[in-house]
Amino acid sequence: MSIWFEKLIKTFENEKIDYLANPNIPKQFYCKEFSDFNSYFFQTLKVSLDQSKKNKIFILHDGVFKKSALNSSENIIDKIIEILSENFIVTVKNLSFECQVNSLDIHASEEYLKKTSELIQNEESCNIFIALGSGTITDLLKHALFISNPNAIFISIPTAMTVTAFTSSFSVVDISGAKRTRPSKLIYATFWIESLLQAAPMQLSRAGYGDLLARFVAYGDWYLGYKLGISEKYDELAFRLMDAYAEPIKQIAKEFGKENLSQSASEISAATLAMAGIAMSLSGETTPLSGYEHVISHGLDFLRLISNRPLVLHGEQVALASLTSAMSFDWIFEIEKFDLKKMRSMSEKDTRQIINHFFNSAPFFGREEEKYLDSERKLFEAQSADTLNSAKEIFIKDYLIKSSKWDISKETFSIFINEWPVIKEYLKKLTIRSNEMQELLELACLPTFPEATTPNTTALEYRWALRFSPFIRSRFCIADFIFWLGEDTCTVGAI
After folding, report:
1. What are phi and psi of 246, to 5 degrees?
2. Res. 53 pLDDT band, cuts 50 70 90
3. Buried residues in 46-73 as b, exposed as e (16+ CB within 10 A)
4. Which member of 86, 179, 206, 286 lies 3.0 to 4.6 Å from 298 by CB, making a disulfide possible if both were Cys?
5. pLDDT for residue 1 is more than 70
6. pLDDT classification of 2: cutoffs 50, 70, 90
């Protein structure tokens, strides 16, 4: 096993976590070769198999051709089928084919979740399900099993190191354009295959690195919310679990600016992503690695989902938004005295009014925004009315949850003010400064301004997402505090 995956075990032991018995910790296998995968896979599942017959396995993938190794032209699907067919009856489903859509159009939405559920319901005698591919495929199969077949054995095989979904017990599902995190199926095991991961497009690996950068800002959101009385609990278990990988992940930033990842960088990235997903599962929520940076990303996704435009790589958005989050923390660290006269409160009527304003001014069409006539936009809004109204109600409901807590918190805000110098110093320990974050992004060739994402994000879209960020979800982030203080998130984030 990789030394970096051995570090997972040592970290759990240091925290006195029984990693063998805890259902929130999937078995982790870092396979140097496909022969390792073959051996690990069968031995791991042996106790769960009916030895009197060949057991069935269901594999879901997205239909994109993926090389099994850097210097190979063999599709990973064919390679995995070849290996598993020795001991199992294998059923393979290509979700893009089943849905008759381009694979790039697939995302974790209710529509594709329904189709995935239909596919697994047709596999009554199958008890082993594999997500072979992206975070999207993993989330879809993970949540479909959670709903339809919770007792099944679920295994993830990442084809690129893109997100933390491969080891977490949560799924992110798009509901009317509003992304929502839901408890999901526990993962039995994750198999990281080095040659496969190194063959993945560097842009995908780079995006996975971007997703990990949330570790350096998201904890500040949780702690700040807790000290304000908005968040009911606060736990640093995930922070300690991730701390073992904090410096190594910084040190490999420059590796993502190269053509291919080194073996060491692959191992560190895979192990850190594995720990990130597990750390969230053990915390019982995604809060430790999903703060303001993910809120901004969800806001940008909303604009694209509503207008059926291709999504930007999640990790690219999170990386850029992590820089904005770091800038926002830098800004609040400069506060010596709070201007109580500028502080905001929002009634339900106020909330509806401002969200209506945001929807009416939303740059749904990105770079094409200026080409749309008023009549064309009105037609689009009329055709999308049901989806927009559904999303609007979700945002209103979620904002009012934390807004009501803020109204209560304001009554004792003087306590927070008295503790502010101490709170500020502790926040500095939980987060990194914007200049260090920017350096990491530059070394990893990740975007440091909106137009550098793939596809391009306009400055108008990004500013809209920042200003709308307090209304994206019910959980607190620093954008809420900035908004309640009567300030502009765009000015604070230097956008």
Report:
1. -60, -55
2. confident
3. eeebeeeeebbbbbbbbbbebbbbeeee
4. 179
5. no
6. confident
- The answer to the question of residue 168 being in a domain is yes
Residues 300 and 190 in one domain: no
Q: Do residue 288 and residue 196 come from a single domain?
A: no
321 and 460 inside one domain: yes
| 413, 316: one domain | yes
138-147 pLDDT, tens per residue? 999 999 999 9
Task: Domain of residue 409: give its range.
Answer: 284-492
Instruction: Tell me the three-class secondary structure of the chain, residue by residue.
Output: CCHHHHHHHHHHHHCCCCCCCCCCCCEEEEECCHHHHHHHHHHHHHHHCCCCCCEEEEEEECCCCCECCCCCCCEHHHHHHHHHCCCEEEEEEEHHHHHCCCHHHCCCEHHHHHHHHHHHHCCCCCCEEEEEECHHHHHHHHHHHHHHCCCCEEEEEECCCCCCCCCCCEEEEEECCEEEEEECCCCCEEEEEHHHHHHCCHHHHHHHHHHHHHHHCHHHHHHHHHHHCCCCCCCCHHHHHHHHHHHHHHHCHHHHHCCCCCHHHHHHHHHHHHHHHHHHHHHCCCHHHCCHHHHHHHHHHHHHHHCCCCCCCHHHHHHHHHHHHHHHHHHHHCCCCCCHHHCCCCCHHHHHHHHHHHHHCCCCCHHHHHHCCHHHHHHHHHHCHHHHHHHHHHHHHHHHHHHHHHHHHHCCHHHHHHHHHHHHHHHHHHCCCHHHHHHHHHHCCCCCCHHHCCCCCCHHHHHHHHHHHHHCCCCCCHHHHHHHCCCCHHHHCCC
Domains held by the chain: number: 2
> Is the preceding peptide bond at 455 cis, omega within 30 degrees of 0?
yes
Rounded Cα–Cα distance for residues 86 and 131 (Å): 19
Indicate whether 223 belongs to any domain: no
Q: What is the pLDDT of residues 186-221, one digit of tens each?
A: 999 999 999 999 999 999 999 999 999 999 999 999
Per-residue pLDDT tens for 427-470?
999 999 999 999 999 999 999 999 999 999 999 999 999 999 99
Check if the beta carbon of residue 187 is closer than 8 Å to that of residue 131: no
**Beta-ladder partners of 31:** 193
Q: Looking at 200, 218, 249, which one is the last position of a domain?
A: 200
Does a structural domain hold residue 463? yes
Measured CA to CA, the distance from residue 360 to residue 376 in angstroms comes to 13
**149, 169, 200: which is the final residue of a domain?**
200
**Cα–Cα distance measured from residue 309 to residue 61, given in angstroms and rounded to the nearest whole number:** 22
